[in-house]
Amino acid sequence: MKFLNHLTLGQYVPASSIVHSIDPRAKIISVVVVLSGIFAVNRIDSFLLWAVVLFVVVKLSKLPLSMVLRSARPVIILVLFTSLIHLFFTKGEIIFQYGFLTITLEGVMMAVKIGLRLVLLVMYAGILTLTTSPTELADGLESIFSPLKRFGFPAHEMAMMMTIAIRFIPTLLDETDRIVKAQIARGAELDQGGIIKRIRSFIPILVPLFVIVFQRADELAVAMESRNYKGGEGRTRMYPLVWSFKESIFMLFTILTTLLIILLDKRIWL
Amino acid sequence: MNFQKELIIELKNLSFFYPGTKRPVLRDLDFKLRSGEWIAVLGANGSGKSTLAKHFNALLVPTQGACFVYGHDTKTNEGQFLARKNVTLVFQNPDNQIVAAIVEEDVAFGPENLGIPSVEIEERVKKALKVTGLYDVRKRPTYTLSGGQKQRLAVAGAIAMEPACMVLDEATSMLDPKGRKEINDVLCKLHKGGMTLISITHRLEEIVYCDRCVVLSRGAKVWEGTPRDLLIMGDGLLEWGLRVPPLVEVWGRLRDAGLLSDEVLPKIDEMVDALCL
Amino acid sequence: MPIVVENLVHIYHEGTPLEIEALKGVSMNATPGEWVSIVGHTGSGKSTLAQHLNALLVPTRGKVIIDGIEVGTDSKEHRKIRQLVGLIFQYPEQQLFEETVFAEIAFGPRNWGVPEGEIPSRVSEALYLVGLDESFSKRSPFQLSGGEKRRVAIASVLSVRPRYLVLDEPTAGLDSKGKDELCALLEKLKTSGTGIIHVTHDLELALDFSDKILVLEGGKALLWGSPEIIVEELIERGIEGLVMPPVVELARRLRDVGFDVPVTWKAQVLASAIEENLQK
Q1: What is the CATH classification number for the domain harbouring C165?
Q2: What domain range includes position C187?
Q3: Chain A contact for B211, CB < 8 A?
Q4: Where are the alpha helices (DSSP H) in chain A?
Q5: Number of structural domains found in chain C
Q6: Is C75 a domain residue?
Q7: Residue A231: is it exposed, middle or buried by C-beta count within 10 angstroms (0-12/13-18/19+)?
Q8: Do the domain assignments include residue C29?
């Protein structure tokens, strides 16, 4: 059954919004700018400002807020873990003590900030992948890195690999599910015994998966060749990337917002 | 000018060996395909029919003999270019020929490779999506499609290249009856619109709409003729690993009893009409 | 001791926005020595049902009882169920992984703790059943032809000597000769007392071989009964969305225009009936 597929729901959600329609290059560069902006600030109120900006972007993208919030779910364990470490291991004014566990005021602040920072980073990246199709994303990256082509950097090949990888993730998850179940049905026990036995017990899953992946890759290569694929040279695009006035304005806004939040954070004018 | 009869593909004494092997996969094949025809290539598993499919658009080239597309040998650069441009293939496993994650982007893949201008790609994609009935799902991720939809997507990707001829290599064998019917309906529609088609299959149910059948057995052409003449052979087809479907069995019995005339094909509509007279 | 499925409901991701009700209250049963087919389109829930019979999935509601053991009550019992019910997935040749055919076929029996001394005879028996000779046992499964791989994969389940065999679309990708041989094997197993549960989208094939057929659509049981009952229902009611076997469709159309032909899926029966009708 296709239940593993739903793991990838954090991917592209088509809609006709201003955020969807912006050139992927502008979006990718903006996300990089915003991510550095989030790293550059250190006050809770600055993080809240970033959250407000995020909220506005989500509204503009016409995506349900819950969907963007959910995009942070895969990293929630990481966030909790990192926050907890800071909560217990930051030195400062002790506000709570139990045995060897001490919580300091600084620790609480640190934990909240780290948590907010990580969640914001993931959600901004999430907005990018939710509003940009994998092909657009790949085209954008290819175009951004294409100046490096003259130094031999395989920008087109990287982009094509990315597109295909994203395309095949759901298929391979289904495949894995089927092989795991088939071997369990043959009596394989995947979670029994010591470490060596457990590693060995994955052979019946890994070998068939490798075979399947190679076979698929082989057939896909033939299919691509028969559809006249000969690399990036001479290819055109159905939706060519267009950097218009809209994109310039969008970039300008991104940079100004980022600078403003950083300046506010550093209290430069005080 | 007789446009209908233009020669698209011609095989001359074509034989094929995989490098390093001695037994030929294809032996001494002769065969002609003219514009507007729908041909079925039939054979059991291992008869060489998929290997033959790959010759039609120069994915493979003959070891001996030759394959001509529009009069050009596919061994030459010119021939290879013409073959790739004019003959498109749809393969058996729909999952292994979809390149892009979004439906319309996948249809655009072929035309993009051909270097077609953007505006024209958009038009072609729209047309191909409409013919295959996928226009409403054009923005959907490809993995959410059903088997029949995925295979129709592969067909859309092939016709967006606006080929002279489309080759379907066991394109329905992984589908359920609903998916098969979807594909066959699309093919009938394309054929009516003038598209030249080659269906490669072992299912005799699918040949009644074709103009001509070629039977392969162990790499050699053992028979060529109309679907009716082939289906009349009944159990004689078992020799080539082909099984007559039950409906054709009924049709054969009724023909033998003199209840159906020569023109009636084993299609339900035609049979009911003929029996009612 | 039979397999009994009662009002089986299966919901994936219950309580989340991704909730999908794959089975909506399905009942069926099967005994050893019987051939039962589960027929439906992709997405009808037939594979979900099949996975319950092997305790790979447990019911959300309702019951699945395999020879008196209920699926889902005690997960320790699930291994017992899996030993009783062999499950062969679609394209089983893709699960092969061992270095030799022998090891591949021995994988199941070894997992279930069959004594090492008994293994060679189990392997020979399974090879014989699927029609491969002893010389195959030393070969690598990856160097076999597609059809041979399929046989080895089936042998690797038969070597456990399951009381029931559940097969998900076992004829997919086979040509008519391969199909005939596989059906003959399943008939042989059935006669020797194995229960065959055949999951397929091919209603024609199911009608030819089954004792009982369950037709699923959208997670619901549309029809359940002997092939005769199924065909009668199909002709009387005509099921929306189900592609009819062409012979049944022809019989239905001829009855509509006044022919006195029986409800049947058998070519010979229909042909004789039409001849009689026209001679009158």
Answers
A1: 3.40.50.300
A2: 3-244
A3: no
A4: 18-21, 24-40, 44-61, 65-70, 76-89, 105-131, 134-145, 155-185, 195-200, 203-226, 245-266
A5: 1
A6: yes
A7: exposed
A8: yes
Which of A1, A3, A183 is the closest to C95 by Cβ? A183
Residue C39: band (very low, low, confident or very high) from pLDDT cuts 50, 70, 90: very high
Chains that touch A (3 or more CB pairs under 8 A): B, C
Does residue C109 belong to any structural domain of this protein? Answer: yes
Q: Quick one: pLDDT band at residue A269, thresholds 50, 70, 90?
A: low
**In this predicted model, what pLDDT tens digit does every residue of C179-221 receive, in sequence order?**
999 999 999 999 999 999 999 999 999 999 999 999 999 899 9
What is the predicted pLDDT for the residue at A13? 82
Residue pair A184/A190 in contact by the 8 Å Cβ criterion: yes
Residue B80 pLDDT: 92
Q: Which residue has the higher pLDDT, A101 or B103?
A: B103
- Interface partners of C (3+ CB pairs, < 8 Å)? A, B
Q: Model confidence over C164-177: pLDDT tens digits?
A: 999 999 998 888 88
pTM to 2 decimals?
0.86
Distance between B172 CA and the closest CA of chain A, angstroms:
16
Best of A161, A178, A226, A239 to mutate (most B CBs within 10 Å, chain B):
A226
Query: Which sign, positive or negative, has the C-alpha torsion A51, A56, A60, A65?
Result: positive
Mean pLDDT on B43-53 = 91
Nearest to C87 by CA among C148, C177, C169, C180: C169
Using an 8 Å Cβ cutoff, are C106 and C117 in contact? no
| Chain A residues with CB-CB distance to B113 below 8 A | 227-230, 235
Is residue C19 pLDDT above 90, yes or no?
no
- Top residue of A177, A186, A190, A200 to mutate, by most chain C CBs within 10 Å, is A186
Q: Do B97 and A235 touch (CB under 8 A)?
A: no
Domains (range + CATH), chain B: 3-232 (3.40.50.300), 245-277 (no CATH)
For residue B99, give the 3-state DSSP assignment: coil
Give the closest of B54, B115, B125 to A235, CB-based.
Answer: B115
Q: Is B100 in contact with A239 (Cβ distance < 8 A)? A: no
Closest Cα of chain B to A218: distance in Å? 9
> If you measure CA to CA, which chain A residue comes closest to B102?
A133
